[in-house]
Amino acid sequence: MNDFVDFFSLSDPNIRYVVLGTAFMAAGSALVGCFTFLKKRALVGDAVAHAVLPGICLSFLVSATKNPLLLVIGAFITGLMAIGAMDAIVKHSKLKEDTATGIVLSVFFGIGIVLLTVIQQSGSASQSGLDTFLFGKAAAMSLTDVWVFGLISLLLVCTILLTYKELMLVVFDKNFANAIGIKTKRFEMLISVITVLAVVVGIQSVGVVLMAAMLITPAAAARFWTDRLPVMLLVASIFGAFAAVGGTYISYLAPAMPTGPWIVMVISIMAISSFFLAPGKGILHRSLKIKRYQQKVLHENVLKLFYKTGEKDADFYRYYSFEQLNKLEEAAALQLKKALPKLTAQGFLEKKKAEYKLTQAGKKKGQRIVKLHRLWEMYLTEYLRLAPDHVHEDAEGIEHIITPEIERKLEEKLNFPTEDPHQSNIPYDHKN
Amino acid sequence: MDAFWIILTGTLVAICCGLLGCYLILRQMAMVGDAISHAVLPGIVIAFMISGSRESIPMLIGAGLLGIVTTLLIEYFHRKGKLQTDASIGVTFTWLFALGIILITAFTGQVDLDQDCVLYGEIAYIPIDIWLTEGGLNMGPRVIYIIGIMLISILAFIFFGYKGLFITTFDPAFAAVVGINTAVWHYGLMAMVSLTTVASFESVGAILVVAFLIAPPATAYLITHNLKHMLLITAGLAFFISASGYLVAAAINASIAGAMAMMAGVFFTIAFLYQKFSSASIQK
Amino acid sequence: MIKQVKDPILEIHDLSVSYQKKPVLWAIDLTLPKGVVVGIIGPNGAGKSTLIKAIMGLIPPDSGFVKIFGESLEAVRHKISYVPQRESVDWDFPASVEEVVMMGRYNKIGLFKKPRKADREVVADCLLKVNLEAFAKRQISQLSGGQQQRVFIARALAQEADLYFMDEPFAGVDAATERAIVNLLKEMTASGKTVVVVHHDLNSAAHYFDWTILLNLKLVASAPVKEAFTAQLLQETYGGKLTLLTELGEILAKNEIPNREKKRY
For chain C, which terminal residue's Cβ has fewer other Cβ atoms within 10 angstroms, N or C? Predict the structure, then answer.
């Protein structure tokens, strides 16, 4: 508990710097990542993250200092070169995007490692710590770092806000954007620039390999919660910031634990949870929807059974026992057993002792399903020219999804038929 | 003598990775290869913890399994989760790699490694194998055996599976219609890639594996229209990249693995410029 | 006008197929005779490619079954041949014309054996039939669109099958290739083979095919071409979407409801 308070009170300036710095970094990366995600070029961020290494090393070699601004400039240059190289490879050869990304990623990084080891061999005093600059040591953030990251993230946010409309068009409908005169090339360049910028800031917290996660994963998570870009941007940056703080906190609790991987762990868990739990698009939600639909089908089929039996007996309000019902249709007894009490609770059935009968509401509902079934069978025989003995299966499924509007259209199209292809009566509701 | 072993190891590893990489790039799965090479880290660590040593067989098995798991996860997120392919790859391998690093730190006592090096991203594999020099290469007869066995397996796979790989890579729909099980070939290839990447880490480290998987095949693809030639050229490049990489590294006293990756890039660039400007002149 | 035949080479019963959860084929019932060139005609999105893919097992149907030569698909795969759409492969692939055509023999050779002289002769013969014998060693990216199409056809011929499915073989080919393919199809049916072709152009359809299937989400007609090509039936095929089916299809897709749920209770 003490740890919690100590940490979140942000009284310790070191903690303050780390929390703020990583939160800014993560939020900024998440924002930029949304755009690369939507352009379906999420792995470009991975390549850029690897490609900044040679730039940083070259900067150091040339300037012999560890001035963060110079290092950032160096990173920037090779980062942009990487994007240019990937585009050039695809444009001027038969190689595809995935190959281009992989080559740029590994070759640039290899060159970076060569330079890094050369620097290490030279044994110059100021180069110590260059590695941590590159491979992520969030725990060692200073006030200057926080300022730099904060400003850069602010710059990213402002850029995106200012060019929001154009960026959105370029990402979603490039042809249209071109057609209305937007210089899409410039905006794609802008996306490249902000990607490199986000990477340069981010790798100092999480390291080169995991940088891709800070770009891709918050965006992927946010995508499951909304279809609208502004909301997605907001959600992604909140997720990113949350993961940054969370990961830093965990690392604080267990000092041996590296911060970068824990930030990635938190955001990954958030993303995977989103894949499952998000309403609408989430996997669980979709399977729940399907289960609910199956139950609706089951209930309607039971009421249909009552109604059809009532048709045969010319009395809709007779009582039937479970055994009688079970015999009438080769049904899964368990399903039937579960449905009967539920339908009673909903007011479609009435129960007396161990027997069930339809209520008015139940009869109405059962009648509607039977009507839709027979109407649809008419439609299939007339408009699809199916043989009468082939239409039953289809109608068994469609009867449950025909909406009242479609029902009306069907009636009109078929001219209010009274009999289905099997000469069964089509029951219309003659009330009012 | 060292030079010989280094170049030999590099060549053998490059051949293994490159041959498989030919199929990866033709199937447009180059980045899946990159993903697998990172995602196997937790498998290696767990295998290490279970077997208590760096014996290669448990590690290979652990990694092989995790490679398949990675492929399955990527497909699950894509198909069931309806997540786009590039994001499925990105989310999966970064998460698994982070998991791997966390496991290494959590079990520092049991896993032989240096704390700082864990943060070195991909060079994370080096600490698991104390034989690695700062250059990232490991030499010694044991490694040669492993890579040798790997190479023979891959050659057998490609030789006997030539037609199966050929047809499922070029036209999987047609293959399915004539009754070929495309899934078997797909997962078979992924399993080989997993095993190869792990067997290679031991010796050359992660930087180089991805470079070897993708760059030499891409280079070969640019200069030939024949699959068999592409495989042969890739193997030939393997030697030249290894040899030149080593020489460069020795000359400027730099990372051997990095230098080899760099040379892979150099050869690629030459081939790229060549095909670009010679095709331009043909068109004129 | 849905004509059923006795002893059909292909029998489709109550076939419903969805693409991305949306039904594109509703309850198709038809039979096809042997030894004819069949054209599948319909507007874009009518389910033409989906139909042949479902028959060949590339797309699982929501309902119904298909019988080929009176048997299930698995039993007769060696008698079926497929010419996919040209865009479905990457023509930069490092293979020669010969090597692609040889793929048609893999079934007969066996996946793990070497091609024999007989196989090479079949390949050469098929290349001759499509006028590509001079291009045997050429890499496939160096071919024109029409030549690429002919490579696919030669590959299908090399299978020496009895029933051929072709997906838009006339799309984007030059006039000479088109004529050559039409003649080839007629030769094939003359020797007893059956060819089912997905086609995009109504005008040429009347001349190319003996039998036509008209599709527009539902089966409009399946009959000899003269009987199927009436003004009324063509109007039904091309005269616009079936709004009710489309609406219902969209409800099914949006809610991810499988079309034709098996009876649960």
Answer: N
